[in-house]
Specification:
123 residues, mainly alpha, 5 helices, 83% helix, 0% strand, globular
Length: 123
């Protein structure tokens, strides 16, 4: 039950922060979802760092990993918003925006996870 509560609280905090970032960074005028992009990249970096610390230091508790990686990062990053925003690009006929957003999200997202794990090696 404790683990479920940790994931629940972490997810609520992550979702709230993602909402705030989206409110301030998503550009409804241009249609570019900077907020979702930023949340996904920052979340990828955080999860890479958390998992890197977990692998480097056996002292990181499974509850900490559940709270931050599963809860916070799970609530903070969002595939559903990413998919919906890509739908909007396609619906509006902005195929270039769709391609750039999708490709950059995957490449930079993966790179951020690896960067997070790499940074931890030097801490």
């Amino acid at each position: 039950m404790k683990q479920l509560l940790l994931v629940f609280i972490g997810g609520g905090l992550g979702s709230s922060l993602r909402y705030w970032i989206g409110t301030y960074l998503n550009s409804y005028k241009s249609g570019i979802p900077y907020g979702t992009f930023a949340a996904n990249i920052i979340g990828s970096l955080i999860i890479g760092m958390v998992l890197g610390f977990s692998l480097k230091n056996n002292g990181v508790s499974s509850n900490t990993v559940l709270f931050i990686a599963t809860g916070f990062c799970g609530g903070f990053t969002t595939f559903s918003a990413f998919a919906y925003e890509n739908h909007l690009f396609l619906k509006s006929g902005d195929f270039m925006g769709f391609a750039i957003y999708t490709i950059l999200s995957f490449i930079i997202g993966f790179a951020a996870v690896f960067l997070g794990m790499w940074v931890v090696k030097f801490l």
